[in-house]
Every structure is written in C-alpha cells, then in structure tokens.
Specification:
This protein is an alpha+beta fold and about 300 residues long. The chain is built from six helices and 20 strands. It has three domains: about 70 residues, Uridine Diphospho-n-acetylenolpyruvylglucosamine Reductase, domain 2 (2-Layer Sandwich); about 130 residues, Uridine Diphospho-n-acetylenolpyruvylglucosamine Reductase, domain 3; about 80 residues, Alpha-Beta Complex (Uridine Diphospho-n-acetylenolpyruvylglucosamine Reductase, domain 1), CATH 3.90.78.10. The structure holds flavin-adenine dinucleotide. The site of flavin-adenine dinucleotide (FAD) has 33 residues, from strand 3, helix 3, strand 9, strand 15 and strand 16.
C-alpha cells in the first residue's frame, strides 16, 4: 500500500478544485486490503474512495478525509462466456477509455454509449455512469468488492442500480469496488468503432469536453426536462462567479475557468438551485459528489 501525506484534491480531480486531505492510501494489490482498516483507524478522518476524480467537487482548505484509491489495473481480459455474453474482467483502476478501446479491438459490443466518460471502471460502476441510453450497470454480471472487512463476489441480481447510483443489496455500509465483470455481445469491430466515434463527436460538438469540469453537475429532474435546459431557461448558461462558470456551451457543465474554488462553485450552485426552484418549482439534485459535506 502506497501512502502519501496531505494529498491535494485539486491535483486529483478533473475540476481541479479542493484542499488537502489527511492522507492518500493507494491500493496496489488485493493484499493491501488486510492493512487498510487498521491504517484508516490510525489516521482518523473519513475515508473517501476515489477513482479518477472526474465526478468529485471537493471543498477548499484542510479536509478531514483519507483518500483510498484502488489502483487495481489488472485486465481488461476475456474470462469466459455466459450464454450469448462474452465476459470481460477489469480492475477498478482501469480507465474507462482503455476498457472501451479493448472492446473495440476485440469486437465486444455494449459499452459504446460510455465513450468520452473519463472515469475509472470503479467510478463508472459506483456512479452507474451512462449516456446515449446506456448505463454501466446494464452490462455488469458480477463485481468483486471489499465490504465489512471481507472481499466477496456480488452477482448482478444483488445490485441496486439507480440513476447515477449503485448499491449492494440492503447493506448500508460502504464498499470498495475492486473489479467488475462485464457481459458483452460479439459484434463487428468496424461497427463498434463507428458507434464510438459517432457518439464521441456528438458529445464533443455539444459539451466542453476539454474544460476543467466534472461533467454534468446536476441530475436531470425528469427525462423530458434536462437540468441543462432548466439552467438555460433560468439564465445560468455562461453565468460566472469567482472563477467558476456554467458553460456557455452546455449549461449543466460547471467549469473551473482557472482560478475557481469550491466556495465559488457551491455559491453558484446554490444560486442556480434557488432560481430553478423559484421559477419552475423543481429541485436540482447534484450529480457531482460533493465532499466532505453536501450542499445544505
Ligand atoms: C468531461 C466529462 C464528461 C463526463 N461525461 C459523463 C457522462 O456522459 N455520463 C456520466 O454518467 N458521467 C460523466 N462524467 C462524470 C464522471 O466521469 C463519471 O461519473 C465517472 O464514472 C466517475 O468515475 P471516477 O473514476 O472519476 O470516479 P470518482 O469521481 O473518483 O468518484 C465518483 C464516486 O464514486 C466513488 N468511487 C470511485 N471509485 C470507487 C471504487 N472503486 N469503489 C467504491 N467507490 C468508488 C467515489 O467515492 C465517488 O462517490 C463526465 C465527467 C467529465 C469530466
């Protein structure tokens, strides 16, 4: 287990925002899990499991958090078949773009809609990341997780998959996803690459994909009422505060223009949520995970 003192959240998140945590524990092997609970107790603070940090808005200043990063990068590898599905195993630390490249190269279809999502396999599973009508959970057949001090395999049936959320059975305790097994269908490689390219260009034409952001900052309150449209109608497209801005390209992308802070981000979000509530009577729920405290 690799340990770093005072890790910067700004350096570990795609929003480039956030202060210093107490420590960072990088899990490089499954054996590291044996020492994890004791080390967390010794360090104190609240554990925060982190993947690529592409859906995290971290507060400024000293944070009572210990970052736990499952840098388990085994696979992706084909491990068998289940009916018509080809099973692919991937460690939690593998970047989603790498998994998608593997799928395209091996003629495995299912994840094409997830192109352009910059997170890790673990983060995509826990967020049930999705786009173009596809969600990560739809393609999981099993997970390997660390929960309550035990490593176990969890089958698809035991997952509670929701809109940008995933839980395990009735358990409330936190868990670390160590690896995922995806069930994918065989298809022509050119077709898969074409769909991925098409989806990527579609995103690139509408979203500020290279800006410092965490993707969509709010969940869509309803499928026919996207958060971006509500923000736009409430006058928040392009609205700026303290180095943060709702993108003029896609109003649901909160962007750090270079000198943004969590305080500014949260103030702008608060303003937007109030305006949308007053004008449309609708609540905007953050999709981005705000740490350590959610908005009031
Ligand atoms: C440009 C851009 C485009 C995006 N487009 C999309 C999109 O189209 N669709 C979409 O759904 N999202 C999108 N996102 C958001 C983000 O990429 C996804 O939510 C992604 O799945 C997060 O993965 P991550 O590894 O970065 O997770 P992190 O941001 O590191 O963590 C997110 C959450 O998952 C938890 N977590 C992470 N890894 C683990 C693990 N191994 N075990 C347990 N818990 C874990 C964290 O505690 C946290 O609560 C986009 C972001 C950006 C910057």
């Amino acid at each position: 287990m690799r340990e770093t003192a005072s890790p910067s959240l700004a350096q570990r998140t795609t929003l480039r925002i956030g202060g210093q945590a107490i420590a960072e524990l990088v899990l490089e092997h499954e054996d590291d899990l044996e020492r994890l609970p004791l080390r967390l107790r010794e360090l104190g603070g609240d554990p925060l499991v982190m993947g690529a940090g592409s859906n995290i808005l971290a507060a400024d200043g000293d944070l009572p958090l210990v970052l736990v990063r499952p840098a388990l990068v085994h696979g992706p590898v084909i491990v068998g078949r289940e009916g018509d599905l080809t099973l692919v195993r991937a460690g939690a630390g593998i970047p989603m773009p790498r998994l998608l490249r593997f799928c395209a190269a091996n003629g495995l279809s299912g994840l094409e809609g997830l192109v352009g999502i910059p997170g890790s396999v673990g983060g995509a599973v826990v967020m049930n990341a999705g786009s173009f009508g596809t969600e990560t959970c739809n393609h999981i057949t099993a997970l390997l997780v660390f929960q309550d001090g035990v490593v176990s395999t969890v089958s698809r049936d035991a997952l509670r998959c929701g809109y940008r959320s995933m839980g395990i059975g009735e358990k409330k305790s936190r868990f670390v996803v160590l690896e995922a097994i995806f069930g994918l269908t065989r298809a022509e490689r050119n077709g898969i690459s074409y769909r991925m390219r098409h989806n990527f260009f579609e995103k690139k034409s509408k979203q500020p994909v290279t800006a410092w952001s965490a993707g969509c900052v709010y969940k869509n309150p309803a499928p026919d009422m996207p958060a971006g449209k509500l923000l736009d109608m409430a006058g928040f497209r392009g609205k700026k505060l303290g180095g943060m801005a709702f993108s003029s390209r896609h109003a649901n992308f909160l962007v750090n223009e270079g000198k943004g802070s969590a305080d500014a981000a949260l103030a702008l979000m608060q303003e937007a949520q109030t305006a949308v509530r007053q004008r449309f009577g609708m609540e905007l729920e953050p999709e981005v995970r705000i740490v350590p405290c959610p908005l009031p």
